Amino acid sequence: MSSALRQKTIFGMIWSSIGKFGTLSLSFISNLILARILMPSDFGYIGMLHIFIAISQVFINGGLGSALIQKKDVSHIDYSTVFYWNLLLSLIFFVLLYLTAPYIADFYKMHLLKDILRVQSIILLVNSFSLVQSIQLQKNLRFKALSVRNIIAALIGAVVAIIMALIGYGVWSLVFSNLIAAITSVILLWRMSSWRPTLEFSFNSLKNLFSFGGLMLLSSLVETAYTNIQGLIIGKVFTAKDLGYYTQARKLEDVPTNALSSIVNQVSFPVFSQLQDNLDILRAGVQRSIKSISFLNFPLMVLLIVIARPLIILLYTQRWEASIPYFQILCVGAMLYTINSVNTNVTRSLGKGSLYFWVQLIKRLAGIIFIVISVQYGIEAMLWAIVILNYIFFIINGMVSGKLINYGLIAQLKDVYGVFILSITVGVVTYYGISLFSIDNYLLTLIIHTLIYSLLYISLSYIFKIDGFFTYKEVAENLLQKKRKSN
User: Fold this and answer.
1) Short-list 377, 297, 284, 380, CA closest to 338
2) Sign of the CA dihedral with 314 first, then 316, 321, and 322 last
3) Rg over CA atoms, the chain
4) For residue 239, which of 83, 246, 255, 447 sits 20 to 30 Å off, Cα-Cα?
5) pLDDT value at position 12?
6) Taking the CA of residue 320 as centre, how many other CA atoms within 13 Å lie in the half-sphere pointing to its CB?
7) Are 359 and 279 in contact (CB under 8 A)?
8) At what angle do helices 308-316 and 324-334 cross, to 10 degrees?
9) What are phi and psi of 416, to 5 degrees?
10) How far is 258 from 334, CA to CA, in rounded Å?
């Protein structure tokens, strides 16, 4: 990796981190306030319909965004073709959801869902104006512009949601906040990007992009169905209130998990794509990414499991206590989520669309079968099935990476097992050590657990010479050095 690309990658990671954590922080604060105003069933209504919007969005993007990033020399007509194709598909799916909304409402036996889905589906039309500009910024590693846009849009959406909830709009505050945030995002993106579509469309371009993007589309469909089928099943088999508890637990777990995985996907895919012709350098980059990510993700998930009770009760009050075990189980599964993202990005960046598709298809279809069977034994049984699946997926992904870049399952296990064991050991010591003392204050319990866990983990990482510790130490020193020079 050249020094220029390395520097761009580092600053891309930094700005992507700022954008993602900023956006998620705003979303988290907004959700925290809304959870105290709205009912669990309000969140459940949105959770029931999310799968229909998500799958429609996958069809609209059609995997062409990934194809544009992966392709080395992208022409203006490629971008223009994708723009008009997305616009056409968004209109088709908007009409489709509008017409099928009554039948979806009947499926859940909730008439209100018809109007909610019809308004929600407008976001498909709005988002169709953002894909090409967003891809261009990603491809050029302009993550600062993307981050600024995401934070401003999230802030405006959060303000709208809170104001509407306080006035008494209930579930509609969630619907319109997402729509307003999407509109704001598109406006900002068009101001930041100089690219504009022209009246050009090429079927040859679409065909060439679809040769890779088509497989990405099918893979994304399977992935989206797998990710969202939990909400669909819970909403159908159980109640909107039960789905609300699950949705809130998922949102809280999603803050760190989604932040890390999105940063990795947003930066590593275009960077790995630029390194696809040099497997030695690519292998070293993947190994460094996995070590760095596991150093952060493993202890963070274990810490969240330890502090789950005081965290959720302090944030959402006692009425959300039922979501605590859901949250803890989700955190167990999330420990490997980001590493799985790195491994799948290796396959995508090398242009192995067919391999990526078949691997993802097999994993997700097996996962859907597991989920459908396990939900008969309750929500917690279903979540434990998902945890087991995440660890099975890590084994499969590691084996694929071994075939492609000679950095397989055994090598990855050697690189991460130390951090995995250290994170769990520190978590057990912290939890049972503090439980010896009687502390009735939730806030004090939360602070003490977090401080002791963090100090123990960092100290032992230094003593045992964990690679991830020294990687972040090096990054911090470089940033301080650059800051001193600029001053």
Assistant:
1) 297
2) negative
3) 22
4) 255
5) 59
6) 32
7) no
8) 120
9) -115, -15
10) 9
SS3 content of the chain, % helix, strand, coil (to 5): 85, 0, 15
pTM metric for this prediction: 0.70
Q: With cut-offs at 50, 70 and 90, classify the pLDDT of residue 427.
A: very high
CB atoms closer than 10 angstroms to residue 4: 8
| CA pair distance 414, 437, nearest whole angstrom | 37
CB 344 within 8 A of CB 356: yes
Looking up tokens 């939990």 gives 230
Give the containing element (helix H, strand E) for 456: helix 442-463
> Which two structure tokens, joined as six digits, stand for 232?
């669909």
Q: Helix (H, G, I), strand (E, B), or coil: what is residue 301?
A: helix
Query: What's the residue count for the chain?
Result: 487
Q: Which two tokens stand for residue 240?
A: 């909107």
Which of 113-122, 332-341, 363-372 has the largest mean confidence? 113-122
pLDDT in tens, 56-85: 887 777 667 767 776 667 778 888 888 888
- Which band of pLDDT confidence, cut at 50, 70 and 90, is reported for residue 92? very high
What's the rounded Cα separation, in Å, for the pair 433 and 425? 12
What distance in Å separates the CA atoms of residue 467 and residue 470, rounded to the nearest whole number? 5
Instruction: Tokens for 329, please give them.
Output: 């189980």
SS3 of 369-425 = HHHHHHHHHCHHHHHHHHHHHHHHHHHHHHHHHHHHHCCCHHHHHHHHHHHHHHHHH
d(CA 390, CA 411): 18
How does DSSP assign 118-147, residue by residue? HHHTHHHHHHTTTHHHHHHHHHTT-HHHHH
Contact between 146 and 19 under an 8 Å Cβ cutoff? The reply is: yes
